[in-house]
Amino acid sequence: FPAENIRNFSIIAHVDHGKSTLADRLLELTGTISSNHLHQQVLDKLTVERERGITVKAQTCSMFYKYNNKNYLLNLIDTPGHVDFNYEVSRSLAACQGTILLVDSSQGIQAQTVANFFLAFNEGLTVIPVINKIDLPTAEPDRVINQIESTFELDVSDIALISAKSGIGVDKILPTVIEKIPPPSGDINKPLKAFLFDSWYDTYVGVVCIMAIVDGKLQKGDKIMSAYSEKKYEVVDIGIMHPEQVTTGYLHAGQVGYVICSMKVAAEAHIGDTFYHIKNPVEPLPGFEPAKSMVFAGVFPTDANEFNRLDESINKLTLNDASVSVQKETSTALGQGWRIGFLGTLHMDVFRQRLEEEHDANIIITRPTVPYKIIYRDGTSKLIRNPIEFPDSTEMQNKVSELQEPIIMATIILPEDYMGSIMDLCGSRRGEQLEYNYMDESRVMMKYCIPLAEIVTNFHDELKSKSSGYASFDYEDMGYQTSDIVKMNVLINKKPVDALAAILHQSQVAHVGREWAKKLSEVIPKQLYEVIIQTAVGGRVIARETISAMRKNVTAKCYGGDVTRKMKLLEKQKEGKKKMKMIGNIELPQKAFYDFLTKD
Ligand code: GTP
């Protein structure tokens, strides 16, 4: 296929606006998959994705299509559908020359529509707006067309109105793609420049990379090098996704396909990386960033005996997901575990779900922490990802010049009726309004600057419940800002419990401190002695709860009974103790921590 007969494009949309359904229709229309295939949505592969109806991992597929008597190779590059994966979306888009901006005609433009549009716009892509779900009785295509025109200033004169579900209008999409989107501009005679934008781990063949060949030609047996890691690889298999791997032996400029090249772990396949022939280095493509975890949490097995088995499971899952970072961690309260870094909270939920469902894990996850930055007086700085690393008072006084926290810019789109309650929510989360605009007479787009820490603790759920599900939300990274943050300890009988410490903004301490002390007092069972629960910042106690002592001794009911019964009871208690944790002079059941950390 000469480059002028190739089109590389993607579909971008807000969650549930029908991206996967449209992709399936296009694959059927081109005969890439049959229309009576049993499992719908070929492009969404993980079970978690199917259950939750969201695309976590992008999948790419090539199609052959005849138009005006010419044969075309159309590469549909799918993009992940969630804000946690915005970097991956931007890299997938970098492999395209154009994109279909799909908008649900009953929902209109939503936050991710806006975020994705700007990602595509910044990549210089041709954007083709398409209105979906026109079969719905609640469809308002005219209103949505107006929104598209006023928000994105796109030409809507011959906009396609479709139903990806029933197939209405879908036949117009590919001709428009061919006519409006430019072919890739690479040069087959230049040295190889290959752009990696997706990868996954396959148990049989190892890491499978999806690459776009920008210039030159890549074939089986070629020796290539990563511009980022400078590691060398040999291509052992290469071809197109149609929809599964079909070996071609080579890919040339303008094409997109899979490359298998003896990479051992997914972590070696850096999304956004450039590859070239070993002896012929080229300037890498711009925009590369190594994967960056933004949310960290401690993960501990509920049963310490499970540590080794779960360690293996976690290794398996990370083999598959290069964007998860893992370190071993030991907590006095929760024992041996791991500190795991994720791209965001959805990514964390997906990981947890896979660990629980595919690996039968029983785990405790601590409250998520964002990476805070400590700036020292000598000009150096350090990121901390665990409250344990927070500087103590001597270090604060002598060495630290300031503390910073990550902030984001949130885009929130909502019906104007909910503006008041959502502004209150953002205010209570330390948000600062930057601007708001009416998108039409009743829809508003607000921009807020909010600390990331406030987003990772239930923000999305609250946003949804306070807007009856109508507000949508997306965000982008805005770097770091100076912040008045402190470490809050939870003390049980005066002993700090490491796994429960938290880094908080000064303004949240009083409220969180009271709430946590109360919640803990509800999950810790009565002991033989009085138990005092306190939350404190440094030496300052924020809240205190007391659990009074148990009235009777456990063996009391055996008084007068025979000795063996008493022995048996003590024996049984010993068994139970294995699942207990010593905190200072008291023993707490692991379950109390579990209840505390999962009860919200
Ligand atoms: P993500 O994978 O999360 O990005 O979602 P998506 O945009 O891929 O949405 P998906 O294709 O999974 O569609 C979401 C829901 O909308 C599904 O229940 C589809 O059946 C439905 N849907 C998609 N297109 C249409 C349409 O044209 N009409 C109607 N009525 N429903 C549609």
Which terms summarize this structure?
600 residues, 15 helices, six-stranded mixed β-sheet, alpha+beta
How would you describe this protein?
Helices cover 26% and strands 34% of the residues. With 600 residues, it is of the alpha+beta class. The strands form 7 sheets. Strands 11-10-16-7-8-15-12-13 form an 8-stranded antiparallel beta sheet. Strands 2-3-1-4-5-6 form a 6-stranded mixed beta sheet, with helices on both faces. A hairpin with a 2-residue loop joins strand 30 (531-537) and strand 31 (540-547). The longest helix is centred in the C-terminal third of the chain and has 18 residues, at 506-523. Mean pLDDT is 88; it is low at 41-45 and 48-58. Guanosine-5'-triphosphate binds next to helix 1.
Which SSEs are present, and which pair or pack?
Blueprint: E1 6-13, H1 19-29, H2 47-52, E2 60-67, E3 70-77, H3 86-94, E4 98-104, H4 111-122, E5 126-132, H5 141-152, E6 160-161, H6 173-180, E7 193-202, E8 206-215, E9 217-219, E10 223-226, E11 232-234, E12 237-241, E13 245-247, E14 250-252, E15 256-260, E16 274-277, E17 295-301, H7 307-320, E18 325-331, E19 335-342, H8 345-358, E20 363-365, E21 372-376, E22 381-384, H9 393-398, E23 400-415, H10 419-428, E24 432-438, E25 443-451, H11 452-455, H12 459-466, E26 472-482, E27 485-492, E28 495-496, E29 502-505, H13 506-523, E30 531-537, E31 540-547, H14 563-577, E32 580-583, E33 586-589, H15 590-598
Parallel strand pairs: 1-3, 1-4, 4-5, 5-6
Antiparallel strand pairs: 2-3, 7-8, 7-16, 8-15, 9-14, 10-11, 10-16, 12-13, 12-15, 17-19, 17-20, 18-19, 21-22, 21-23, 23-25, 23-26, 24-25, 27-28, 27-29, 27-30, 30-31, 32-33
Helix pairs in contact: 13-15
The protein binds guanosine-5'-triphosphate.
